[in-house]
Amino acid sequence: MVVHILGKAVRGKYKINYGLSATFYGIGLQSATKICSKLGFYPNMRMHQLTEQQTMAITKELSEMDIESKLLSQIRANIQLKKDNGSYVGFRHALGLPVRGQRTKTNAKTAKNLNKLKRRF
Amino acid sequence: MSEEIKAVISQTESKINDTVNPTTVEESEVAPTTVEESTVVPETETPVEAEAETEPVVEESTTATKTEEPKLKVEWLSLFLRQDILYNIYYCYCCYCCSSLTMINVYIRRSSNRLLSLSSSFTFTRSLSSTTSNLALQGSQSFAKKNQSYDNSKNRKGSGNDLNFSKSILTKNYKKKANNLSIIQDLPILNNKNLKLNSIVKYDEEILKKLYILGSFKPNQFNELFNKPITLLRNKESHEIFKFYENTLIKESKFNKLIITGEKGVGKSTILTQFHSHALSSDGIILPITNMQSLLDGSNDFKFNNELKTYDQQMYSKKLLKKIYNLNKDLLIQLPLLNDFIPIYDSNKLKLSSSLKIGSNITLCDLIKLSLSKPINSTHVLTFLINELSKQEKFPTYLSIDNFNALTQYNYTKYKDIDDKFIKYNKFTIVNTLLDLISGQISFNKGGIILSTSSNFKINDTLKVGLNLIEPNYYAKNSEFDLELSQLLLNSNLENLKIDRFSITEVGKLVKFLNDCDLIFNDFNKIDELNSVNGDKDEYLKNLINKKYLISGGGNVKDVIKSCVLGYV
């Protein structure tokens, strides 16, 4: 059984905190556990046990948080700001190179893959 | 730019025509397999459709050989344009005679409009009809055509198939395969009137059914070796537990409190089961908490009760009420309700409809039935039931808690409140009620409180101070010592029954019984050892008992049985 939260499908067999942290960008286990505690879910509660009201309550909590595309755009805006400032960090981002002083003779694969003109995630 | 591309394409097409048209013989020479395989494919519009019709293979092979001229069809698949470097043009050339695919890559440099490389290589690839990918495709298509009804005969997965051996013991019913029914039938029955100490006994059939409901038999006790569970009545421990039971028939429960302690695998839960058997045989009502951990580990729901300012655990209390009902329904039906029962925090309509009033032949059985049938607060029903039982005098009532040290090992449960902080055990209604019973605030007129520890949970200073074994360390960490609980246990005067290891005579009894049941599998030197004692079986058994006593570290029951039963020990 699949539970749909904010248009995303979460497996019913997952525990709620694990399901939320695995599904949404910007939600880790800690913040997912906080949501569960706030809404009064017991620790071993599974996704398929949620009632419709509880699902709505989770949706409400999530909609108030900066997650998914909202968070991504924030991060992109931050990078863009650094580029516009002409800072070293922005420069390294634009070049597709590591930002925090890592070596570039070898390795630096993650930076080369992700630090594009439009930063990938 | 599109004109440039078209020009290139027209060039390549003409090249293709030049090379392909003089064809079929050359193709067969170059790649004889392709011709053979090409005959397999029927004349359809696309290769994929050709694959779909797989059945008329033999018929088509004759027709396809008659094809007069190969037809050409050029299809555009995709056109990828990259601004700076290269144009990559991919198009697919489909030749009907061999039904093969040819990919032509053309690279053009934008700046000079000059053809850099024209790799119009005709790789007459093998037809898809005989490749493994084709077979896979066929397989997938045949699966799609299959009747999708579920065939139970092919996939018989019963309960417990996903569990490991020790966990599947509870569901697999291995005991039916044991071949020692005749030996067990000859055993004496565990009886309150004639306690046959230092002998192996079996349980009464009626009591055994209740013991299964109670959950007395745990998966790691090797009960699956026998058709029916057996037990050894030990000289000291079984006698003491029987003495305790006799006291419970006379005194109030606040004077009868016992905690069973001991090392791992020494038989604490077995002694508790013997007590259950005694209690059930003399019309005792048992409130069984088979695992204290399940109240604390976050496996059940919890809801804040505004009246009591504690948390209710509805799921757990409903399960417990069901267990109490199944175990004691023949006794509870004889106990009338002594106070009016009005459920809390429900709608007024439900309150009126589900309230029970005294004097209309309403028993405690009806109370439990009500909680199981209607959506009322079952934790409230459980606490109400315990209060009711504390007032009746007809039957002795017992509270039995196994794995009690799950409570003492940490101060906090795994539940979290709204502020994301761990909740302490004493904020839960059920735990509070149990602690009231242990401390003596609530007491049954007849009966007792019996607790048992488990070696799966750590035994910290809290329990030791509570049993007055050590002095409290007030500077100990909060997680290691709970002063409040230890004081409660200390004030409740728990009697400590420490279970010792088996004596050599008890090990002898057990090993002899296992030998009679033919359950000692790993005595590989049996023939040599029998020869060494000139075939004297008694002498051999004596040596075996001594050996097992030594192996088990001086009489640990679990190790004795393991050393006899398991092949790898």
The fold-level CATH name of the largest domain in chain A is Helicase, Ruva Protein, domain 3
CATH class of the largest domain in chain A: Mainly Alpha
Largest sheet of chain B: 5 strands, parallel
Number of domains of chain A: 2
Q: What oligomeric state do these chains adopt?
A: heterodimer
Mean pLDDT across residues of chain A: 92
Indicate the proportion of strand residues of chain A. 5-15%
Counting DSSP H or I runs of 4 or more residues, the number of helices of chain A is 6
- Report strand % of chain B: 5-15%
Please render the helix and strand layout as text.
The complex is a heterodimer of chains A (121) and B (569).
Chain A: E1 2-5, E2 8-11, H1 16-23, H2 29-39, H3 52-63, H4 68-85, H5 88-95, H6 109-114
Antiparallel strand pairs in A: 1-2
Chain B: H1 2-20, H2 24-30, H3 32-40, H4 47-52, H5 57-65, E1 72-81, E2 86-95, E3 100-109, E4 115-119, H6 132-145, H7 165-172, H8 181-185, E5 199-202, H9 205-214, E6 230-233, H10 237-248, E7 257-262, H11 268-281, E8 285-289, E9 303-305, E10 310-312, H12 314-332, H13 348-354, H14 364-373, H15 378-391, E11 397-401, H16 405-409, E12 412-416, E13 422-424, H17 429-439, E14 447-452, H18 461-466, H19 483-491, E15 495-499, H20 504-516, H21 526-532, H22 537-551, H23 557-565
Parallel strand pairs in B: 7-14, 7-15, 8-11, 11-14
Antiparallel strand pairs in B: 1-2, 2-3, 3-4, 5-6, 9-10, 12-13
Question: Overview of this structure, please?
Answer:
The complex is a heterodimer of chains A (121) and B (569). By secondary structure, chain A is mainly alpha-helical. Chain A has 2 domains: 2-65, Helicase, Ruva Protein, domain 3; 69-114, 30s ribosomal protein s13, domain 2. Chain A has helices at 16-23, 29-39, 52-63, 68-85, 88-95, 109-114; strands at residues 2-5, 8-11. Chain A has a two-stranded antiparallel ribbon. In chain A, helix 1 packs across helix 2 and helix 4 (68-85) crosses helix 5. The mean pLDDT of chain A is 92. Chain B is of the alpha/beta class and 569 residues long. Residues 22-129 of chain B have low confidence and may be disordered. In chain B, strand 12 and strand 13 (422-424) form a beta hairpin. The radius of gyration of chain B is 39 Å and the shape is globular. A 5-stranded parallel sheet of chain B has the order 8-11-14-7-15, with helices on both faces. A 4-stranded antiparallel sheet of chain B has the order 1-2-3-4, covered by helices on one side. Chain B has a two-stranded antiparallel sheet with strand order 5-6. The interface between A and B is medium-sized, with 10 and 15 residues. Chain B: InterPro entries: P-loop_NTPase, Ribosomal_mS29. Chain B: Residues 9-21 have a biased composition (Polar residues). Chain B: GO terms for molecular function: structural constituent of ribosome. Chain B: Its main location: mitochondrion. Chain B: This is Small ribosomal subunit protein mS29.
